[in-house]
Structure formats: C-alpha cells, structure tokens
Write a structure and sequence with these properties.
Pseudouridine synthase; alpha+beta; 18% helix; Structural Genomics Hypothetical 15.5 Kd Protein In mrcA-pckA Intergenic Region, Chain A; 15 strands; 310 residues; globular
C-alpha cells in the first residue's frame, strides 16, 4: 500500500476533491481517484470523502493507493488516425484525452490497446509488454503526432535519433499572458520536484539538460499563440518550461493555475510535426498534423477579445 498526503493550499481550496487530487497527482486519472473514493481510500481526518467535497485551505487529505496490479494488455478495436505506415513503423495522430499506455486506473482504451489490435504481434518489444512499440510519449491531454516502432531494429534506431537530438518535434500551444520576445530559448534542467514527486520542476538536483525553443505566432490580449521546438524531450518539458518563464500553457491545471482552465479540458498543446530519418531506407521523412477542433475553437474565442474563462 502506498500513501499520498496532500495538504490543501489557499490556491487549491474550493476545487472539487476529485479534480484537485487529479491535478496534484498526475499519475492518477480522475476515474482512478473516484474509484479510490468509492473504496473509501481517500480520507480527511480519518473519514472518507467523496468526489464532490470542496476542500478548504489546511485540509490534509490522505490517499491510500494499493500496490499496482499485474496488467494484462488486450487488443481493442479503437480507431486510429494513422498518418504514415510501413513494415517498420507508423505515425499516429493521437487525440486529446487518450492515454498512451496502460497503467493503474487506465487499463484499457489506451493507444497501446488500439495498436495491439491494429498491428497484432508486429510491435517492438524493447519497452516491455505494457509499452510495445512506444518510442516516445505525449501526455494524455496533449494531442498530436507520435511514432511507433514495429520491430526492435526500428525502435533502437529511432531512440538513438531522439537521444542525439536529430529527431524533429514541433508543437503548437496557447500560453497564458503576452510573450514579450518574438522568439527565445528556455535552457533549464528538469528533474523530479522535491516538493511533489509526481511533478517535474526546473532544478539542479538529479536533473537532466532540457532545451525548448519558442517563437510567437500571434499575440492576443491575455494569451500568446506559440510555436515550440524540442531540442530535448523530457517529461512535461514544454509545460514546465513555459510555466517557469511565467507563461503556463492555457488549461494546464498541474503547472498553471488550477482555478483558471479557460474552458479547456487540459492543456492547449498539440504535437504538430515530427521529422526523422527512416531506420531502414535512410530517407528523411517529415509529417505534419493540422490543429484539432478544440485548439482552433479556443483560438477563435480568444480572437474575439481574450476574455478569461474560469
């Protein structure tokens, strides 16, 4: 049994309990938090609370998380938006809200479940049975492109390109506030937060180099539409780096203000382009993805005046 203890701050007070815990414990989905509540494993003062409870500043919430169960990943007939495919690899355009691989609380409905149905046994095994074919990941609420390896040869070659920073990854994001510079670079090492092990942070302790390049596409009254290019690919890199310079990604309840989601369900971040050298042919391939509806809809709203949504 693992135990998490969350002390509610002034900033988090008044947020519904299941939403609050999901924001500070990103490894748990809201459905997983709600399942723990139903099992009376989320306690305040030794008594169970439910998802609708509104915590107050100073509340100390204890979450009792059972040990991970051995997962059995099954193929599922889930439609995939495939932008490129051959015998060695495929490029998938992942929708917002889809988890990449199974974990406790997300045992099905993931990209891996869909890939097992589509590819059968033709997926690399380097990352084990839970993450077959997964060379790199994007967050659940980040939409866009990611590459999947069908064999270990391709997986190793693609992973090496990522390691030496020759794998091209470009994103689009709407960030909060107005970026003053037309372009810039955030060069700040990332590691696990010392105050919250579920989060990443800019830190010199047990960290790794992280570099994000950004440029302004368009400025609005309260937001900036931005292009970003990853030089490295650390966990939550764009989200942490943009929050670090004072411009969190709009809708990011983990690294931004959880009380101001602007009508978004998760961060407004899209992986719009990847470029790589094909492991077998040596040909450079570049694939792009159009902005999804949730993103264009939000751009349309802020173009009308930048009204702030709660």
């Amino acid at each position: 049994m693992n135990t998490e203890i969350v002390t509610v701050t002034d900033e988090l007070s008044g947020i519904r309990a299941d939403k609050l815990l999901t924001s500070v414990l990103p490894d748990l989905s809201r459905s997983a938090v709600q399942a723990l509540m139903e099992k009376q494993a989320v306690l305040l003062g030794g008594k169970p609370i439910d998802k609708k409870y509104l915590p107050k500043a100073g509340d100390v919430i204890v979450i009792e998380i059972p040990e991970p169960e051995q997962l059995s990943t099954q193929p599922e007939n889930i439609p995939l938006d495939i932008r490129y495919e051959d015998d060695d690899l495929l490029v998938v355009n992942k929708p917002k809200g889809m988890v990449v691989h199974p974990a406790v609380g997300n045992c099905d409905g993931t990209l891996v479940n869909a890939l097992l149905y589509h590819c059968g046994a033709s997926l690399s095994g380097i990352n084990g049975v839970i993450r077959p074919g997964i060379v790199h990941r994007i967050d659940k609420d980040t939409s866009g492109l990611l590459i999947v390896a069908k064999n270990d040869f391709s997986h190793a070659a693609l992973a090496e390109q990522i390691k030496v920073h020759s794998f091209k990854r470009e994103y689009r994001a709407v960030v909060v506030g107005t970026l003053k510079q037309d372009e810039g670079t955030v060069d700040a090492p990332l590691g696990r937060s010392v105050s919250d092990r579920k989060k990443q942070a800019v830190t010199d302790k047990n960290s790794r180099s992280a570099v994000t390049h950004y440029s302004v596409i368009e400025r609005y009254r309260n937001f900036t539409y931005t292009a970003l290019r990853l030089e490295t690919g650390r966990t939550h890199q764009i989200r942490v780096h943009m929050a670090y310079i004072g411009h969190p990604v709009a809708g990011d309840a983990v690294y931004g203000n959880p009380k101001k989601t602007y009508g978004l369900d998760g961060q407004c971040l899209h992986a719009g382009l990847i470029g790589f050298v094909h492991p077998r042919s040596g040909e450079y391939i570049e694939i792009s993805s159009e902005l999804p509806e949730y993103f264009t809809s939000f751009l349309g709203r802020i173009q009308l005046g930048g009204k702030e949504w709660s």
